[in-house]
Amino acid sequence: MRLGDDIDDYCSRCKRGTDHSVVTVAGEKVQKVRCRTCNYEHTYRHNKGGKKEMTKREAFDQVLASVLGTQPVEEPKRGRKK
Known about the structure:
By secondary structure, this protein is an alpha+beta fold. 16% of the residues lie in helices and 33% in strands. It has a 4-stranded antiparallel beta sheet, with no helix packed on it.
C-alpha cells in the first residue's frame, strides 16, 4: 500500500464499509485512512466494526414489520449440523 491508494474500511461516521484513501503508512502497514464519502480520517480498522449490513430479505422484513406493526420473524441460521 502507498499513500493515496484506495482501500475498503469501516467508517464509524457513515456506519458502514466504504471506500477510503490511505493517509498514513508505517512500514508496510496502513495506519490511518480517510473516508471518501464523508472525509472522516481515522485509524485503519481492517474493515471490522459495526454491524453487518442487512440482506435484502432482512431489510424487507423490517420495513414490512414497521408497516404492519409486528416484529420480524427470525429465520434459523443455516449451517452445518453437529
